[in-house]
Automatic annotation (TrEMBL):
Every YgjP-like metallopeptidase domain range: 38-238
Name of the protein: M48 family metallopeptidase
Alphabetized Gene3D superfamilies for the sequence: Metalloproteases ('zincins'), catalytic domain (3.30.2010.10)
CDD domains referenced in this protein's UniProt entry, alphabetically: M48_yhfN_like (cd07344)
PANTHER family membership: UNCHARACTERIZED PROTEIN YGJP (PTHR30399), UTP PYROPHOSPHATASE (PTHR30399:SF1)
Superkingdom of the organism of origin: Bacteria
InterPro entries, per database record: UTP_pyrophosphatase-like (IPR053136), YgjP-like_metallopeptidase (IPR002725)
Chain segments annotated as coiled-coil in the UniProt record: none
Length: 248
């Protein structure tokens, strides 16, 4: 195993582009953050790479040495990362806490969810080259339906309405709320159990009253979602697996 560099000259290594590990090469992304006070290393969601957050003035050599010192940590985390699933014809992917069978159905014009022998199928209409896009479109529609229902319920409890709700495919966070109550959620949350989706919505709607993560916020979040501990734990343990699913 070796650490690969692109070199400015023979003595000054540039920021590493990848780590060659026993499991194969892993891309390295370095993000400069003016507020960072130290180097921070984490595994990208789904185990697709390594992310280093670095202060603005930390030199490339220090980042390279930092990665080499933590090679063992990287090896361990990559080995434990969830297996990647390609959302192709015949694949099984998580859906609302269960499983969803993806089936190419070119003879159909529209995609449709159906139950076949007790198993939920998504029959994907249209040409095969549009398969991945149509799967994502179908999942987004279901995610919007489930999220909107939860948002309406929790917003009614706190007595405030959101200004807007957007769906994204962010890897850094599952949801967000701005000070003017604009919500955003990762549509991949529809693949999690409904109770986890409910916790996520309760968390963001609680920010309508508390734009922080202090004790008052968590107390308010628990009022909205008494089972929030389960939701938090599930996302921590299994959330990366949802990001490991590749949609073309």
């Amino acid at each position: 195993m070796s650490l690969f560099f692109s070199r400015r000259n023979a003595n000054t290594p540039a920021i590493p582009e990848r780590l060659d590990l026993a499991a194969g090469p892993v891309p390295v992304t370095v993000r400069r953050n003016p507020r960072a006070r130290r180097l921070i290393l984490r595994l990208a969601p789904g185990g697709t790479g390594i992310v280093v957050t670095a202060p603005q003035k930390v030199p490339a050599r220090a980042i390279a040495e930092f990665l080499e010192r933590h090679r063992g940590w990287v090896e361990e985390r990559v080995a434990r990362a969830p297996d990647r699933i390609v959302a192709a014809d015949g694949a099984l992917i998580p859906f609302r806490g269960g499983q969803l069978r993806l089936v190419q159905a070119s003879e159909r014009r529209a995609s449709r969810f159906e139950t076949v022998d007790g198993e939920t199928h998504l029959f994907v209409g249209g040409e095969p080259e549009h398969f991945s896009r149509r799967v994502v479109e179908a999942l987004k529609r279901e995610a919007r339906h489930d999220l909107q229902a939860c948002v309406d319920r929790h917003a009614a409890t706190v007595g405030l309405r959101p200004r807007a709700m957007a769906l994204k495919d962010t890897k850094s966070r599952w949801g967000s709320c701005t000070i003017d109550r604009r919500l955003a959620f990762s549509w991949r949350i529809v693949m999690a159990p409904p109770a986890v989706l409910d916790y996520l919505v309760a968390h963001e709607v609680a920010h309508f009253r508390q734009m922080n993560h202090g004790p008052a916020f968590w107390a308010h979040c628990r009022e909205l979602c008494p089972g929030m501990d389960h939701g938090k734990t599930w996302l921590k343990r299994h959330g990366a697996g949802l990001h490991a699913i590749e949609f073309g």
